[in-house]
Structure formats: C-alpha cells, structure tokens
Structure to design on (132 residues):
C-alpha cells in the first residue's frame, strides 16, 4: 500500500489539472475539484443508483466522482445561481489500490482527467479509449 501525505495528494491533483489544455480550462466554469480522504456512504449509494454521479472505480474502490450536469446536457443559462458541479478525488482508495508512490501518483492523474472528461460529457468508453 502506498502512503501519500495530504500535500503530495493535493499536489498530484493540481499537477493533473495543470496538464489540461487552456481551451478546455476556459470551458470549465462553475466546477469545484476537491481532495477527500474517502467516499461517503451517500456517495456510494448515489453512484450505484446513478443519481447524477459518475465515477471511476478500481475493483470495489471508488477513486473519483463527478457530480453535476455535463456540459453536453446544459442549456446556456442552466448554471446561473446553481451550486457548482463537483469532482471529488479520494486519497484512501488510491493508496490502497496502487502499491507504490509512483503508481498512486500516476493513477491520481488518470482519475482527475477521467472525472474532468465526465464534466465535458464524455462516457467511460470514450475515456478508456483515451487511456483514462
């Protein structure tokens, strides 16, 4: 099992976000990306019920979740005054699923990009084809 400090985990998320091309960053509006230790029971239940959440799993572990309305499903004024869409990246599952520090960091990068892809309306098949 890999062990990451909170700073290493948050830096890995920030580094992944820094790799996103500017033309995509410019379209990322009303979106929060947060680091969390573990998914909650509500996160797990809602993901299983597919109630506005999409995520990436490794075995039974949830590595990340996107909660919100993908850009492809929005109207021009659908975000006004609404709570931001949310991407959650979970530290514990990355540590448990990836035995080395380097493997955990690499997967955090993939998880962030995967969840950002959901924000843009890309499905799992499309992101897996891209390597995420």
């Amino acid at each position: 099992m890999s062990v990451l400090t909170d700073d290493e985990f948050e830096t890995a998320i920030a580094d992944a976000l820094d790799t996103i091309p500017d033309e995509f960053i410019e379209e990322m509006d009303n979106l929060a990306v947060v680091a969390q230790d573990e998914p909650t029971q509500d996160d797990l239940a809602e993901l299983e019920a597919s109630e506005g959440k999409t995520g990436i799993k490794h075995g039974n572990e949830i590595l990340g979740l996107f909660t919100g309305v993908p850009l492809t499903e929005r109207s021009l004024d659908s975000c006004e005054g609404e709570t931001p869409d949310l991407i959650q990246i979970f530290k514990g599952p990355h540590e448990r699923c990836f035995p080395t520090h380097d493997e955990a960091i690499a997967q955090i990068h993939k998880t962030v990009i995967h969840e950002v892809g959901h924000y843009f309306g890309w499905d799992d098949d499309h992101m897996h084809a891209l390597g995420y």
